[in-house]
């Protein structure tokens, strides 16, 4: 963990090559989806059922999912039957527009409230949850906001220690108790402390859990109940962190978490290392929830607020 900070907080030397663009970061997904679509349509002069079948296979193979793919294909079929599609260039642009339409545009997190804004972060182990919290804290700090962290993952001592390292490195207070402590108690104590100290944003970690673990899902419900007793609007954001490389499994995870605790936003990590970035369209279409942030690298500033147009342009332009 310490090596992570040393690697990512060292200043760039003068003359270094410029930082990779979003298109560079999403290279694997762009190759699979945007470049794959270009190759499929190259030289095609008519839009027929054979082409639509190939298009369907390409979209499903790019992790856009069966239901979302069906919607795209149906739109293409209707426009083709009305003679609204003249060539493959028009088809390419239509698919780009259709996919972007599944992404919720109003996705920025509005953190300005009268009292402390509370973000409850959930997800399964290995999705990058605690690291995402640390990067989020740094992002908010860079915007001039005061931040506090709550070590609500009381099942893993390493999770508490990891969060404390983030806090020490960035001069951010971390409220923690011993391993095995009641998570709701930890988050409540942190909330009381944040209110007393006029902290702008409290980010609460929680134990990583599978969506099938009912007892742990009930713990999340308890945390939310305890917070709402003292502020009916808290947590203001319930953010699910998903590993972008998990593909279609991410949709099932998100659906189950949403049923249990009513998510309000998503953060999708590790998109720089996977060709499964198309799953963002499927998740957004399925859950109708905004994608707040995407992780596109290991550096501390590689967690980015999500912009739908920029994302689509990076995949298709």
How is this structure best described in words?
This protein has about 325 residues and is an alpha/beta fold. It has two domains: about 25-100, Four Helix Bundle (Hemerythrin (Met), subunit A) (Up-down Bundle); about 115-315, P-loop containing nucleotide triphosphate hydrolases (Rossmann fold, 3-Layer(aba) Sandwich). The chain has helices at about 1-10, 20-25, 25-30, 35-40, 50-60, 65-80, 90-100, 130-140, 155-170, 185-195, 215-230, 250-260, 280-285, 310-315, and strands at about 115-120, 145-150, 175, 200-205, 235-245, 265-270, 290-295, 305. Strands 3-2-4-1-5-6-7-8 form an eight-stranded mixed sheet, sandwiched between helices. Helix 5 packs antiparallel against helix 6, helix 8 packs parallel to helix 9 and helix 12 (about 250-260) runs parallel beside helix 13 (about 280-285). The longest helix is centred in the C-terminal third of the chain and has 17 residues, at about 215-230.
